[in-house]
């Protein structure tokens, strides 16, 4: 649970840095933009390397594959019924 809270805090910080970076870019503060983006990328790397995030993404891919398979089967069955009725 502590890991999830820490990851959430990192996510919030990364989003805040991204917002700041957009603002810096709009007002032509190039150095501030670059520094903010660099800090944001460090946090993004930390998040991407977190075991909890890696596991979540792995499960998400598996769930997505299953969903795609089910949708393809459903589409095939619907098409078969439509052609059968014609």
Chart the SSEs and their pairings.
Layout: H1 2-26, H2 30-49, H3 51-85
Helix pairs in contact: 1-2
Q: Calculate Rg over CA atoms.
A: 22 Å
Between the first and last Cα atoms, what is the distance in angstroms? 56 Å
Tell me what portion of residues adopts beta-strand conformation: under 5%
Kindly state the mean pLDDT as a whole number? 93
What count of structural domains? Answer: 2
Structural class: mainly alpha
Helix content: over 70%
| SS summary, helix count | 3
H and E order: HHH
Brief characterization of the structure:
The protein is an all-alpha fold and 86 residues long. The protein has helices at residues 2-26, 30-49, 51-85. Helices cover 93% and strands 0% of the residues.
Structure description:
By secondary structure, this protein is mostly helical. It has two domains: 1-49; 51-86. The chain is 93% helix and 0% strand. The chain is built from three helices and no strands. The chain has helices at 2-26, 30-49, 51-85. Helix 1 (2-26) packs antiparallel against helix 2 (30-49). The longest helix has 35 residues, at 51-85. The protein is elongated. 3% of the residues are buried. The model has no long low-confidence stretch (mean pLDDT 93).
């Amino acid at each position: 649970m502590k890991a999830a809270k820490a990851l959430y805090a990192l996510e919030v910080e990364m989003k805040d840095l991204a917002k700041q970076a957009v603002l810096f870019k709009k007002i032509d503060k190039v150095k501030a933009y670059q520094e903010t983006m660099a800090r944001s990328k460090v946090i993004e790397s930390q998040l991407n390397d977190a075991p909890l995030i890696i596991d979540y993404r792995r499960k998400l891919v598996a769930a997505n594959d299953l969903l795609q398979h089910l949708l393809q089967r459903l589409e095939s069955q619907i098409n078969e019924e439509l052609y059968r009725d014609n």
